[in-house]
Amino acid sequence: MEQYIIKGGHPLVGEVEIGGAKNAALAILSAAIMTDDTVLIDNLPDVNDINVMLDAIAGIGASVSRVDRHTVRISGKNISDMSIEYEYIKKIRASYYLLGALLGKYKRAEVALPGGCNIGSRPIDQHLKGFRALGAEVIIHGGKILAEVERLRGKHIYFDVVSVGATINVMMAAAMAEGLTILENVAKEPHVVDVANFLNSMGANIRGAGTDIIRIRGVQKLHGTEYSVIPDQIEAGTFMFAAAATKGDVTVLNVIPKHLEATVAKLVEMGCEVEEFDDAVRVVAKGRLNSTHVKTLPYPGFPTDMQPQIGVTLALSQGTSTIVESIFENRFKYLDELARMGASVKIEGNSATIEGVESFSGARVSAPDLRAGAALCIAGLATDGITIIDDIVYIQRGYERFEEKLRGIGGIIERVDSEKAIQKFCLRIG
Length: 430
Ligand SMILES: CC(=O)N[C@H]1[C@@H](OP(=O)(O)OP(=O)(O)OC[C@H]2O[C@@H](n3ccc(=O)[nH]c3=O)[C@H](O)[C@@H]2O)O[C@H](CO)[C@@H](O)[C@@H]1O
Ligand SMILES: C=C(OP(=O)(O)O)C(=O)O
Hints:
430 residues, alpha/beta, UDP-n-acetylglucosamine1-carboxyvinyl-transferase, Chain, 2 domains, four-stranded mixed sheet, 24 strands, globular, binds uridine-diphosphate-N-acetylglucosamine, binds phosphoenolpyruvate, Enolpyruvate_Tfrase_sf, EC 2.5.1.7, MurA_subfamily, cell shape
């Protein structure tokens, strides 16, 4: 098992290049198998979740060839199997997108119930409601979801909750249904729009992605395309909060500033200077920041995937902050770890009250999930001591070369795999 070991306590300064969005890329890779033609996808992040997805689609017979670290060529022509093995599914949440993709193209799919970060109960009833509305028979048996239909038919579907996964999944299936599908109360996240743009570049007819209503006129066939995934707003935001928490000066490069509005608004409220360029954002924190109040909401609200990163930053800010986590019920686990570093927090249901402290003290903590793990790294980088983070496999799910990128802006962080290596680091740095 690997750990991160961090010696923090100084500002992060410099520029960092942001990669492609994991959560857009995972859906786009699934959608890529919906044509028999070849699809070239660029700006993929080189992270574990993407590799698992590529293995999963290769496992059903798709041809997958890597052009380089961030580019892949996929052909769904020789897919022979509609059943995705549990081995892949249990590792990633987004495996459920293969349901919509296979059902749309082959009218049959068999996918084990998905894994992903343990951040809440994460039902998929809205995905299944959507597939059923399009005419599919969907059953859950032996830990698998089996969906089948002779002909998918367009329908007017109203989602009961705003769900990124259900919106994208049902949109994919409807792209190859007969007639018009209208999806209401949909998610408006940038990755929903990116997947719609990708499908449209393959010949789909999807309008309205990014608004509350998506209209999909089904087509019989999709064709090959070349596509570049949007930048990862969550990776960008993570580095922006790392700059804020360490009182640093960091410019995130290759971003779409519009996607970062909620993050920028909070950083400004907290007292950061934020400069926006065409495809970059600079965050400068000149001293101790101020408290604020945060409520996670679907886009364009403040993202739940950024809640731990702002939480860590608030725990070092002046005054009392509150966070309401309204999307997932189990996303405060990092606060218990942070309390071990000296943070003052009180959790009641889906609300947390944070009394800012001047500084943390280094401790050994565990990453409870992907974003919480990244947030604990931020805590370590802001702490004038040694912090060891266990279970970093979660962080590797979604951050490419995380420690390298942090080192590029002055972070003292190493990935180690033994107690001996930890001791060596402490002797050298401590
Ligand atoms: C791979 C991927 O893209 N993961 C992201 C995706 O997860 P995911 O797609 O799983 O999250 P959803 O947007 O679906 O979940 C939003 C809310 O809806 C509820 N819900 C969802 C589906 C459903 O059928 N029934 C239901 O009740 C969930 O429990 C949650 O409370 O969006 C989340 C919210 O932005 C992000 O935190 C995840 O990083
Ligand atoms: C929670 C996340 O991923 P997943 O939905 O794949 O667990 C995330 O990207 O923060």
